[in-house]
Amino acid sequence: MNRLVDEIFGENKPERYERFRGDYPVRVRGVANSFGDQVIHEGLDLDVCRGEILGVVGGSGTGKSVLMRSIIGLQNPDAGSIQVFGHNMLGEDEGDVQEEGTEAQDVRKRWGVLFQGGALFSTLTVAENVQVPLREFYPDFTPRLLDELARYKINLVGLPAESANKYPSELSGGMKKRAGLARALAMDPDLLFLDEPTAGLDPIGAAKFDELTKSLQDTLGFTVFLITHDLDTLHAICDRVAVLADRKVIAKGTIDELIQLDHEWITEYFTGPRGRAATGANEQNARMKRNEQKAIDSALDGKA
Could you list the pLDDT tens digit for every one of the 304 residues in the chain? Predict the structure, then answer.
């Protein structure tokens, strides 16, 4: 890949942006959102820590997706402040967002988004979908480089090479999610937004997608903002969970910390029948991993 980039660009290849080194890639303060008379958020505060997978949960209508859309600039809040990589995301005009070389556009290069259902363009192949952000931000990239980058991202998310030339209608639900993830990773983001990534997947497919997300996050080091209602996902890969209720983030922390709180929705969500089942499955998986590690350690000691 590096040889191909050097061959195409020579000394004029685009510079890689510097990784964010601050503690909080996303900081939200006092955000308010409403649609007519319906108030969705009021005085909402949230910090997303660098390098974590933050799960975002809440009941129907609490505005989980609205919060994500506010952070990435698709929803203009009524009040408050939002900073991404230290840049103020509110108060920008459309010209600043679209103009090449501005700080606003540079920030947008550094995140990727997987919307619900994958949100693939139906008239584009998987490879062409992956190339969309690359074409937007790097219009001088040659077709050869775009194809190479698309193939790399498609392979990265575990899709077979032949899927590159397929259209979304030819893909299963799980493959659509992975294709959408490949597009979200096209720009090598520091920050990844995932909106209900396992919704509609069978339990095996959902577990595999969770494993893929965690593996990529461990390898590439990005921060994840993950909206989900899937308790298994929260237990399997999330470092912390933020709970939306009463128009704001009412609590955030590990699942063990949240369970100790005296709030009706939190208690019902995490300790109800589905919550207990997810906790039991997570504990069983942890025991299996410990036993596997003991077996590996024993085998290595035997060879020593």
Answer: 455 555 545 555 555 556 777 899 999 999 999 999 999 999 999 999 999 999 999 999 999 999 999 999 999 999 999 999 999 988 755 544 445 556 778 899 999 999 988 899 999 999 999 999 999 999 999 999 999 999 999 999 999 999 999 999 999 999 999 999 999 999 999 999 999 999 999 999 999 999 999 999 999 999 999 999 999 999 999 999 999 999 999 999 999 999 999 999 999 998 876 555 555 555 555 555 555 555 555 655 666 5
| 153, burial (CB in 10 Å: exposed 0-12, middle 13-18, buried 19+) | buried
Contact by Cβ (8 Å): 90, 77: yes
Model pTM score: 0.84
Task: Give the pair of three-digit tokens for residue 77.
Answer: 């809040």
Residue ranges of the alpha helices (H) in 109-161? 126-137, 143-156
Q: How much of the chain is in helix, strand and coil states, percent to nearest 5?
A: 50, 20, 30
Distance CA 236, CA 210 (A): 7
DSSP letter (8 states) at residue 25:
S
Give the CA count within 13 Å in the CB-facing half-sphere of 142. 10
Q: At what angle do helices 173-184 and 203-220 cross, to 10 degrees?
A: 20
The closest alpha carbon to 230, from 262, 255, 253, belongs to 255
